[in-house]
Amino acid sequence: MANDKFLFVVSGAAGTGKDSVVKALREAHPEIEKTVSATTRTPRPGEQEGVDYYYRTREQFQQLLENDQVVEHNFYNGNYYGTLKSEVEKRLEAGKVVVLVIDVHGAANIRRMFPGATTVFLLPPSVEELEHRLRGRGTETEESIQERLATARQELAEQDKFTVKLVNNQIEPCAAELYQVICQRAGLQG
Is 117 annotated as a binding residue? Predict the structure, then answer.
């Protein structure tokens, strides 16, 4: 797709602050669009349909997959997560800068489908800080935290496959760095 230079993927291990960094980026630069993913997990308190996720049943998600309406998906912690094809295409066709927040496996699929996309890997300052962030959520069991840390170590090993790596020491400075990457790669004035 001709406009895939406007597509940016932000990825990294759970707890690296992907959503927080992209939220800060979009607050400072609301012209940058973030697609809303679909998931089969239940909403967390305060999350809204069509804002945080499109919440779907397993059957609905399977139907989307069968109809080739999901550009990337993964099964993680017992739930499906995916990016709807329509969410990406309508924004790129309009010439909008799009930021996808997806896991490392989904990023690999995006690289294949949209070769002009820029993939950004967010790194935690350290594995210890990553564990601190996961525990600080207060939403995970000890078993879940250990599973997420094991997955995080595997995901961190994928970082060299990404176009750009950024360390998320603090949310706002990392968002500003991400904005500079977007401006540079998409040919925008920063």
Answer: no
